[in-house]
Amino acid sequence: MIRVVLADDEDLIRGALAALLELESDITVVAQVSDGDAAVAAVAEFAPDIAVLDLEMPRRDGVAAARAIGAGTAVVIVTRHARPGVLRRALAAGVRGFVPKTTPAARLASILRDVHGGGRYVDSEIAASALTADSCPLTGRELEVLRLTRGGGSVQDVAQEVHLAHGTVRNYLSSAMTKLGVTSRHDAARKAWEEGWI
């Protein structure tokens, strides 16, 4: 029996997917949760074979949750909006499957069996987009300050977190805004997140 933890912040989708997976004779959903932190806790509590995580969830997104879950449990990410940069981050975090939410439940069940058997699965359209996408124009430090900005930090908070002067952080943010063609640090952080760079 393949034991699954299912995490999605949309109750209807999560419930429907759980019901469909339970129709499979070799798959059981041992826990359903609605955010990334709860997914990490459920994996620790139930020790499933696979965690099926929505990409966009409160608290921790699917990739951050996968990183926290670690290699002990296989992770499959499902997403409505697949961006090439997110795929790269997911694979770097050890995610074993990356599928769009348009995937039929029977196909997802088949993917879960493959992943449980040690395989990997990446949707072909998502993979093709990732191969043809532009590379990130931002430096590591620019990405770091944008990641903290997206988390709600002020310039002073970010400066304190990265141990840099306030003016230096402003320079990194300004450079990132220029490279991304936006007019605010929040727009730069949003764009970097949408591209999957942070």
Write up this protein.
The structure is a single chain. The protein has 198 residues and is an alpha/beta fold. It folds into two domains: 131 residues, Response regulator (Rossmann fold), CATH 3.40.50.2300; 55 residues, Arc Repressor Mutant, subunit A, CATH 1.10.10.10. 53% of the residues lie in helices and 15% in strands. The chain is built from ten helices and six strands, in the order βαβαβαβαβαβααααα. It has a six-stranded parallel sheet with strand order 2-1-3-4-5-6, with helices on both faces. Helix 7 packs across helix 10. The two termini are 36 Å apart. The model has no long low-confidence stretch (mean pLDDT 89).
Reconstruct the topology from this structure.
Layout lengths: L1 E6 L3 H12 L4 E7 L2 H11 L3 E5 L7 H8 L4 E6 L4 H9 L4 E4 L4 H12 L4 E2 L1 H9 L7 H11 L4 H8 L3 H15 L4 H10 L4
Parallel strand pairs: 1-2, 1-3, 3-4, 4-5, 5-6
Helix pairs in contact: 2-3, 4-6, 7-8, 7-9, 7-10, 8-9, 9-10
Please give a quick description of this structure:
The chain has helices at 11-22, 36-46, 62-69, 84-92, 105-116, 124-132, 140-150, 155-162, 166-180, 185-194; strands at 2-7, 27-33, 50-54, 74-79, 97-100, 121-122. The chain is of the alpha/beta class and 198 residues long.
